[in-house]
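sry for the spam today, last one i promise. struct tokens for design, 312 residues
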């Protein structure tokens, strides 16, 4: 039975059944990061790889696909989107469970591990320029849609409001509950910007005094997959620059150093983007006498074999 032959209600049932594999990720304290700062400063992190597809992107992918399944015009088409890897893998895992074909435009310099995972999930990969990043992948998606509108349904993670809503309704509430309302700062990097925008909006409703600080790479040329240097990249349609209390930068070098520190001091094998979030959180912690800083760790080290080989 092809995807176009599966009744919509069956697809929606399958989608709902996957909800137990999305969200509700652990929040842990990382004491080694604040031992020299005193007992009243804490850094905590959400282990977002504890979800289907192994990353934070399960939240947005599940929400976006849920809305697509409600759209009559998606029936019988291939789902299409651009990704640096993590959202694509989340899409791939969910689409495999649903029985729906998926095509991804992916920068050709994405890690070999990511490509192998996507291929194992049956995803059709369209390689795009390594120099244009996800901006180039998005442009290729738009070109494919213009040429074959009857074949593809464009999910558009960078412009779909469900990306933000997934974190508004999920991540923020989990942080609030898991900290008992004690969170004082939320720190996150900007990629699609869904994690920061959605989580910040809801946390501010819980307590407007929570400081929410957005980070991005310090330069256009960086090694943080999934992150955007917004001054030189296409700004996602879902991004609201005004909601952050502050905008700061983090270096690739500090992110990689944090990857090594977490392995040596916490027994955590994390990705460079997760290292960047922790480096950002540490920089904020150094300015405080007391506070609970929360960030998200998008994924672990399992998709970054080449980077890990260079670091260890």
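last one done:
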């Amino acid at each position: 039975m092809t995807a176009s032959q599966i009744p919509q209600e069956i697809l929606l049932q399958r989608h709902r059944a996957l909800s137990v594999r999305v969200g509700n990720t652990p929040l842990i304290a990382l004491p080694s990061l604040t031992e020299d700062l005193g007992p009243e400063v804490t850094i905590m992190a959400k282990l977002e790889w504890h979800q289907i597809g192994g990353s934070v992107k399960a939240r947005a992918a599940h929400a976006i696909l849920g809305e697509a399944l409600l759209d009559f015009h998606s029936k019988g088409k291939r789902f299409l989107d651009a990704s640096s890897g993590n959202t694509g893998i989340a899409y791939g895992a969910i689409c495999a469970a649903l029985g729906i074909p998926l095509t991804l435009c992916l920068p050709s310099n994405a890690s070999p591990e990511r490509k192998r995972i996507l291929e194992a999930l049956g995803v059709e990969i369209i390689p795009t320029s390594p120099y244009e990043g996800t901006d180039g992948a998005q442009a290729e998606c738009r070109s494919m849609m213009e040429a074959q509108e009857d074949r593809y349904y464009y999910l558009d993670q960078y412009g779909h409001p469900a990306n933000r809503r997934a974190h508004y309704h999920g991540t923020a509430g989990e942080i609030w509950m898991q900290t008992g309302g004690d969170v004082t700062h939320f720190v996150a990097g900007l990629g699609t910007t869904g994690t920061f925008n959605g989580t910040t909006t809801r946390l501010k409703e819980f307590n407007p005094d929570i400081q929410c600080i957005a980070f991005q790479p310090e330069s256009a040329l960086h090694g943080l997959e999934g992150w955007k240097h917004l001054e030189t990249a296409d700004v996602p349609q879902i991004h609201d620059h005004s909601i952050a209390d502050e905008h700061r930068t983090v270096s690739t070098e500090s992110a990689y150093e944090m990857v090594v520190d977490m392995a040596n001091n916490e027994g955590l094998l994390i990705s460079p983007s997760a290292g960047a979030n922790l480096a950002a959180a540490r920089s904020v912690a150094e300015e405080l006498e007391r506070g609970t800083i929360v960030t998200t760790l998008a994924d672990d080290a399992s998709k970054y074999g080449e980077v890990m080989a260079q670091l260890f």
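The domain at 10-51+164-311 is CATH 3.40.50.1100 (Rossmann fold). ok im logging off now
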